[in-house]
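Reviewers of the previous submission asked for a worked example of the structure-prediction workflow described in the proposal, so we include one complete record here. The input consisted solely of the amino acid sequence. No template or homolog information was supplied to the procedure at any stage.
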Amino acid sequence: MNTTAPPASALNHRAPAAALRRMAFAAALCGLVVVPWISGYATQRLMVEVFCVATIALAWNLLAGYAGLVVVGHQMFVGVGAYALFSLSNTFNLNPWLALPLAAVTSAIFAALSALPLLRLSGPYLAVATWVLAEVLRIGALNSPWLGAGGGLPLEAIREFDRAARNAGTYWASLAVFAGSLLAASMMLRGRLGLALMSVRDSEPAAAAAGVHVLRAKFLLWLAAGVMTGLAGSVSYMSTLQVTPDASFGMNWTAVALFITILGGIGTLEGPLLGTLLYFVLRELFAGYGTWYFIGLGALAMFVMLVAPGGMWSLFNRRGFLDVFGIRRRMDTHP
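From that input alone, the workflow returned the following structure tokens.
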């Protein structure tokens, strides 16, 4: 076996591409930061929704596309994060933006506790169990006077801020959650955890035989996805100023994340971003057609699954050369 180290050129040829990606990410982030100063309230609210939905779809794709954990009750993280923000802010009269880290901690605690029983399941058993847990949480919130029961909770502390500050602050919070989640996901998948997760997805027995700590890898991913989704849910309902059980724990969140991921490309970081863009473009153009709009979305999803099982991203990246986030692993050959 040849144990000589690869030449320096083989180790360093990715450095310019990595630097270019960092510069492009920083430039895009700077461009998005100034949006509240150059746009109206409607644009800011739409962008908040785009960032939050993209983050939730990204988290769902991490679970299903990189670890094979198909979660039907993904909305449970949305509801827990949103209710954590609203209840903590209202109870302790906290600035909602300062309460966001507490919502993240609450989402992490919930993810850790729910992981103990759920990650011992797999396949359809896991899918059904997550849906049941989400329904239990929804019914619990419906019957909890402290959480506002069916009427939900308003975000009282945010009333101290005028409309401009409210909209801009919520926009920047959603941008920070989206950018932070995307950065964390790309770093995670470039590291050893990403390699472990993909090996678990391909064959869990083979991964365990190769020395991968399967349960720990799943637990860390579950924790990350729970925090990402909880924060996105918090900011999303911060934008609407009201959270209710039926909306926050509603199946629509998972349905949209699933549709976006399948449309864009499951098992890629680029897929949920492309899927989110296509979803909102279609919604803005055709939502006025009522029932036909939903029929059209369903037909589009089926068409993509038949023609391009890898999603729309696979059509752009037929030869596999495009690697926007630098997570594709290559084997360097050397004499």
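The first strand starts at residue 153 and ends at 154. We consider this example representative of the routine output the project will generate in years two and three.
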